[in-house]
Amino acid sequence: MQNQRKVQHLIIHILLIIGVAATIVPFIWMVFTSFKTTGEAMAIPPTIFPKEFRMDAYKKIIHSLPFGKVYLNTFISTIVTVAGQVLICTMAAYAFARLEFPGKNIIFMIILSVLMVPGQIFLVPQYMVIMKMGLLDTLPALFLPNLFSAFGTFMMRQFFMTIPKELEEAAILDGCNRFQIFGKIMVPLVKSGLSALIIFTAKFAWNDFMWPLIVNTSPEKMTLGPSLSTLQGQYTTDYPAQMAGAVMAVIPMIILFFVFQKQFVEGVAQSGIKG
Amino acid sequence: MNEMKNVQVKQRKKKHISKSKKSEWIAAYIFIAPLVIGLLVFYIYPFFQNFWFSFNEVNRFNISTFTGLENYKILAKDKELFRTLGNTLKYVVITVPIGICLSMFLAALLNTKIKGTSIYRTIFFLPSVTMSVAIALVWKWMYNGEFGILNMFLNLFGIQGQNWLSNPKLALYMVMIVGIWMSVGYNMIIFLAGMQGISQTYYEAAALDGAGPVKQFFKITVPLVTPTIFFVMITSIISGFQVFDTIYMMIGKTSLAYENTQTLVMMFYRYAFDYGEKGYAAAISIFIFAIILLITIFQFVMQKKWINYD
Asked: In the predicted model, is pLDDT for residue B10 greater than 60?
């Protein structure tokens, strides 16, 4: 029996290690290539390890693209999107979960139906709204429509619904108004929901591709995703340069993931249970 | 006398309640105002405008002329629509079941008493936190016909590699592999959460009856995670229908495989922002919406039939 279990565990480990290999080989290949010279990347027979770790590719792309600006744009756009969505969605979600007001059900149904519509439907008119605002090719254009999320509101509402009403009633008796209750009592109680929302939104905003591609054109107003596409066009056959760009685009999210691993995993698990 | 007093008290109470109710209303409207205004400007108004556009010809300078059902009539005969629809359906029909099976399988392996589960979990999750555009670049490089690692690996076994992404017959499948690779870890976490909710007693009873791990998986785990399968299926189908980033990055306009890899959303994007035919693009987007709506309705009807909620 003991032996049989050991064999079972061994088989499981072998299967998992195959999975691990399939998962990390692309990452390793990306990092190794980024440190090669262009010549070495295209050598026959190909090498796996770089002969020496060179920073040439990184230096090259930093000179040819306004990488500092692009990073900054992506950071600002991500942080504003996250902060805005957390504030706007959480406030609205609290009202839908806890307050009674005329029109509540109809408004909530409309928000839910926004959730069902694929994003392409909105793109062209959104582009025109931004144009009418005179914001094409600016930083605010990157995040403005993303501040408002039907998904975030729905998810936070689910979290607020699980909090017992008694806590609020006690606070009302103590003379708190709705805004104090929201800020001091309710928000601290939905921390796990907030971290899930923050992670989803950060991941989405950081990785967003189609919207910045549409709404902004100048390289110094771009985010990382479309800049990688530009890089690909510029260095069609310079694979170390392409991989260096990919490494730089991927690293901040990976660091964030390692720091907030528990929240990431729990957030995703929650979305399956609550959805 | 007494009765009158009672009525007065009641009335006063009523007035009091309505006053606190009013303050609740005002608070609620303040809470929802930013969201509602934002959704109106950026989502609800655009929805109707897009719908209106689909009955218009909208030129490069965004001047629209009403053409009635013209866009839809052209669309109904457009060979490109059927080709992109075919590619999209192929993508969904292949990636969704394989993705679900793989992620369920990995979740089942991790839902055992082996050591190091959290390390495995972290590694499997990595692809889903990385930028799809960057991933597309990496895979494109791995698939490279001359210097790619895939051909290098196949050569070890004496298999002659090829230029995977410019082969019209293979390119879409190669993109599918990337799509699956990106989403398996994410769905695995959702399945794992579902499996951890299953009571251990079922497995103990089954083990006493002599059921091995494989039998336990099919007879206990799978039936009990059907709600999760359903959830993952809906989300994967919807995101599969909207695949864009990877194909955009991996298959260039001049690629031999271009026609065989263009999806509905790619077609929409080209018409809206490359060709500047926004009216026709609007009609395409309405078509995508209609398909997704149909699938969602179909799934909710089917849900009642095959999901086990006990």
From this structure: no
